[in-house]
Write a structure and sequence with these properties.
alpha+beta; 9 helices; four-stranded antiparallel beta sheet; 27% strand
Length: 468
């Protein structure tokens, strides 16, 4: 009998057979996994055991059963037909998709009570980990009460707590009354008479009092570049009510006569983005300098009712958000500002176009800075890189990172566990810092006025806080 001639297999047929073999291997593995998970055929019943105390059922996570292979012969599909090939390929694709879903990363927030697989039921309000990881004060809860004040032995602390406990909220007008400014009021320089004490249309990012002692004026900058002004000396009894169009006598009733008085609030749209900070000039109370994330500094002259740009990048396409602004207390024409890219700027307000210096102080965001009020050539910075640093502006050199950028002389630095959000000098040469590690630190530097330019770096001990 003659041997059968060997038939050459096509590339398509070879690929199909490899796919079938890979599919069978995957299905066998999935069947083993399903059997190990208790999803396979049931076992023979075991003899009944004596009744025991019922335990609470453990919630199991349901797993989708992987599709099993079905018989093509029973389904009436001829072997090696196009229908059988498509059926096999569909089963292979379905198995691959089931395996992919099983390994897929879970996105979005997860509630621990929904993803728990073992242990007792999770109580998110009463779990035992809250006391371990709790740091700082709880929102809405008093940090001390009358009993804590009585038990305080430190006289200064007790006096401060008694003073804080005696404070009362401003009751001139009812707060938290919802209002909506018109587009004209929000985008133009106008005086709006609105209910409540909502000084700005959006979230407030900067807030402060005018330095005038005879009249409490509150200024606030919001997220969209609006600056709101509110006179805190006005009260509901002295403020006029909102004007309304004249009404006919037959339409006039008792409700129209009992309208609630409304405070006078003025809103200016000075910037196109968040007003990060502002400062009044110590030499001219009518001058207010504002900084913004739109990369500009502006001067608001309350006497002339005008706002002028003091600084902005030369290239309008540059995005260099400004995080803080402060004026030299001894030199009225020098204005300092910090940027989110880690730079400190100094601009001469007399000739801002030609006399502007930019210094590189950090590779990350500078959240806040402060000049020493008695010797303003010393500046303290707080950075996202977890450091508080003290600089001497009298001596300039190249930044350690290179790139040709200038940097003032570094006097010393102190590292915190998390980012430092702000640093503030006082006239005694102390620097107070606030950090995301829930601490306030006070650093004491004695005799700063006698420090020579370019002195040696302060040691870690000298930079360590005197109080935490």
């Amino acid at each position: 009998m003659a041997k059968k001639e060997s038939v050459e297999i096509s590339d398509y047929e070879r690929q199909r057979q490899e796919n079938i073999a890979q599919r069978d291997k995957l299905l066998r593995q999935l069947a083993l996994d399903a059997s190990a998970a208790g999803l396979g055929p049931g076992q023979k019943p075991k003899p009944a055991k004596p009744a025991q105390k019922k335990r609470p059922a453990v919630k199991k996570i349901k797993e989708e059963v992987v599709p099993r292979r079905t018989s093509s012969r029973i389904a009436g599909i001829e072997a090696d037909s196009e229908v059988a090939k498509r059926k096999a390929e569909d089963e292979y694709v379905a198995a691959q998709e089931a395996a992919r879903v099983k390994r897929q990363r879970i996105s979005g927030p997860l509630d621990l009570s929904e993803v728990q697989v073992a242990g007792k039921g999770w109580d998110k309000d009463g779990n035992s980990f809250r006391d371990v990881f709790r740091r700082g004060a709880d929102p809405g809860e008093r940090t001390f009460g009358e009993e804590e004040v009585k038990e305080t032995t430190d006289k200064e602390l007790r006096a401060l707590r008694e003073k804080m406990s005696g404070l009362e909220l401003y009751d001139g007008f009812e707060p938290n009354r919802n209002i909506t400014l018109t587009p004209y009021q929000a985008l133009s320089m106008t005086e709006a008479v609105v209910p409540g004490i909502k000084i700005t249309p959006e979230r407030i990012y900067s807030l402060g009092f005018h330095p005038a002692a005879d009249k409490p004026l509150v200024f606030a900058g919001d997220k969209l570049g609006n600056l709101g002004l509110f006179t805190a000396s006005q009260s509901s009894s002295s403020s006029p009510t909102k004007k309304s169009p004249p009404m006919k006598s037959e339409d006039h009733d008792e409700e129209s006569q009992d309208e609630d008085p409304e405070p006078n609030i003025t809103t200016f749209h000075l910037h196109t983005r968040t007003i990060s900070s502002f400062q009044f000039s110590p030499h001219n109370p009518s001058h207010l300098y504002t900084s913004s994330y739109d990369s500009s500094l502006r001067l608001l002259d309350l006497t002339k009712s005008s706002s002028t740009e003091i600084y902005a990048p030369v290239d309008d396409s540059l995005d260099e958000p400004i995080s803080g602004v402060e004026m030299d207390p001894l030199t009225p024409h020098l204005l300092y500002f910090s940027r989110l890219d880690g730079c400190l700027g100094r601009v001469d307000t007399r000739t801002p176009d030609t006399n502007t210096d930019i210094f590189r102080l950090s590779e990350k965001k500078i959240g806040g800075f402060s000049l020493n009020p008695t010797v303003p050539h010393f500046v303290a910075t707080a950075s996202l890189d977890r450091h508080m640093r003290v600089w001497d502006l009298r001596k300039l050199g190249k930044h350690p990172a290179g790139g040709g950028e200038r940097s003032p002389a570094l006097c010393g630095e102190h590292e915190s566990r998390l980012s430092v959000s702000h640093a503030a000098f006082n006239s005694a040469g102390q620097v107070a810092t606030a950090s995301y590690d829930d601490t306030v630190k006070v650093h004491t530097f004695e005799g700063m006025g006698a420090w020579r330019a370019g002195r040696d770096l302060l040691s870690a001990e000298e930079m360590a806080p005197s109080a935490v």
